[in-house]
Structure formats: structure tokens, C-alpha cells
Amino acid sequence: MGSKKKWIIGCSTLLVLTSLIVVYASMTTSGGADANESESTKKIVFNDVEQSDWFYDDVQYVKEKGLMSGTGEIVFSPSETMTRAMVVAVLWRLEGQPKSNDITFDDVKRDTYYYNAVAWAAKNKIVSGYDEKTFGSDDNVTREQIAAIFYRFAGYKGYDVSKKADLSKYTDLETISDYAVNALEWTVANGIITGTSENTISPQGNALRCQVAAILKRFCDTYNTDIDKESASVSQNEHITLENSKKNSTSSSTGGKSNSNSDSQTIGNANNPLITISEATALPGKDVRIVATIKNNPGILGMTLTLNYDETALKLQKAESGNAFRDVLDFTPSKTLSSSSRFVWDGVDITNDKIKDGEIMIMDFHISENAESGKYPIYLNCADGDIVDSNLQAVSVTTETGYITVEK
User: Fold this and answer.
1) What domains can be seen in the chain, in order of their start residue?
2) pLDDT of residue 264
3) CA 101 to chain centre
4) Can you give the pTM of this predicted structure?
5) Is the pLDDT of residue 88 over 70?
6) Quick check: 303 pLDDT over 90?
């Protein structure tokens, strides 16, 4: 192992050097900018948001209106997941940052930037906690939670929320929680949130920061929300909760594209690596195998994936590397096989003849005897920098959710 490339360390070093170069370049070119350049043509001051990105206008909008800040001075982190606290803070800013009373959630501390936001939202029944004491501030927000939060906010504002869409075309309709059905019908009808494909809406999928920016802009456009002036400047960047949310962060396939009102657009393009998870049907008390597969493998040298699933119904009994990486990359499974387990693949080098598409992980699950009938999603999540190629460059990967359907 002594001579092995440490891709995590190498990637971190490259990111630091890249940041220094960007900052230096910004310092050396700012003085030569055209003094007559209008504000409307200036580029966003985020080094990870380009004019060619589908979410560029959305990020521009939320930044100019003071609704979302970066996770750092020059970083927006478009592909990071949003937390529940972040989404509530966004709507609080849209409302003008009203003051509110104390709250009783034990996990919402008074010195956090989102304290007043959660207090306001809870008071006005825009959000609720998991229970009286727990809000889940740092938990990733799901698509159906976002729909519900925006739906309640629209009702709080007195907007017309009567328009509804028929969701029957979505094959994952049964995975929508009861509380979120009306909200998703409303968001789909108004083009605020749409399907992740023609026949899926992925209600349990996590939402990325760029997607929330798009959803927010669509909401404001739908109701002609007039923000006369920029909201009060965000006093703290959102990296405080982002660092916690990275533990469950995902590069998901639930991207939004505001100029076409479609959520099927993802970060990257059709040639980006795609990780898919198979689907299976099983009876309670039985075993079932699920396989994760990669397509368009660019020559991955290092990768970390986090597995998430419902432990009340499923138990992971075994996980092993698939044929695409077997005898190519060393596989290190989690010591404890459970939801949120992390799996690592790394290697010394990789040649063209070793770059393969195909199976990357084989997982054997046992279905609980008490498992209810229904579809149980299987997620493989990754954060920025969790996957690198043979040049130790970060790789953007799209992941698609798999399902185990339990039948009785």
C-alpha cells in the first residue's frame, strides 16, 4: 500500500491547488474588466457555475435576490444535496426574514443561521418535525418534502393551489407518502416539479442545490412573486449544514431544467458515467439479489459510495465487488453492513484494457418476515470528489434508484 496512489489525498490536493489558481486568476484579471460592462452580463461569482450549465439562470436568480448563498465565497456546490434547514431558510428569506417565537425542537439551536427560519415556518405550519422535539435540520430533503413545504408556503401566502395534475402515469406513484400526494399534484400541474423521466417522479429522491434553485425560480415565476429588492444579505454561508449533509449526500438523477419545465436533465451530459441499480420482487422472509451496474466508465481509479435503504424491511447480508472492478480495483466494504454503509474502490493505476462497463457491486438482501407490501428504494449515493479517474480528476456520475418490491 505504500506505493499506491492515495486518490482521496491526491484529489484534495488538486482541489486546493485549483482553488488557489482560480483566486489568483480572479485577482489578476479584475482590474482589467470593462468598466462599461453592465451588471446583467456579468458572470456569477462562483467558480463551479458556468454559463453553459442548465441551472445558470436559476442560480443567478436566487443569488441576485439574496435567497441562496454559496457554500463558500466562490463556491455554490450545485451538485450537493439540500438539507431541510436550508430549504426552510430559503423560503424565510423570500418572506423577508420575519422574526418569530422560540421553538421546542432540540436539534435547532439558537446560534444557527436557520433558527428564526425554522421558528417562523413551524409557527405557520409550513413545516413540522418528525416529532415534537426533532426537526431533522441536517437531514437531506426529499423531492416530496420540498413539494409539501412549497405547497404549504403557497397556502400560507394565500395563493391559488387548486390546480392539480393526474399522477397516475408515474410507475412509482405508490412510493409517494400520503401527506405529499396533494402537494406533488400541485407542483406537477404548475411545472414547479415534474418527473425524473416520462414515467417516474422519484418522490423519495434527494434534491440538489441547483434543483432547489430551479424550483424556487419556477415558483416565483408561477405566482409572479415580486421581490422589489434583494433580501437582506445572507449573514452566513450554507456550509455549516452542508458539512453535515455531506454524510448523506448524493449525486442524483433528479435534476431540474427550468427552461423546459422538466426534471429529467442531470448535471453533465448523456456521456457521463451512469450507475443503475437493478429491481427485484420477493416475498417476506426470502432473499433477493440486487446488482449495481456502471455504463460509460471513464476509467475510475477511486470511488466511494454510500448505500441507503429501509432497514425495517431489508437486511443486507453480503456485498461484493462486481466484474467491472474485480481484479482491477481493491474493494473495501463497510465493517458493518447496514444502511449508510460506505464502500470504497481504489487502485494504483488503470490501463485502457482494464476499463470496463458492467457490474460494480452485488448485494444480497434478506426481506424481513414483517415487511409490508410495497416498493422499497435502494440508493447508492456519492458526494463531490468521491469518484476520480486515473488522472485523479473528479468524475460526475449520475445514479438511478433501484427498488425491491415486496409482495405477500
Assistant:
1) 45-248 (no CATH), 274-406 (2.60.40.680)
2) 35
3) 31
4) 0.51
5) yes
6) yes
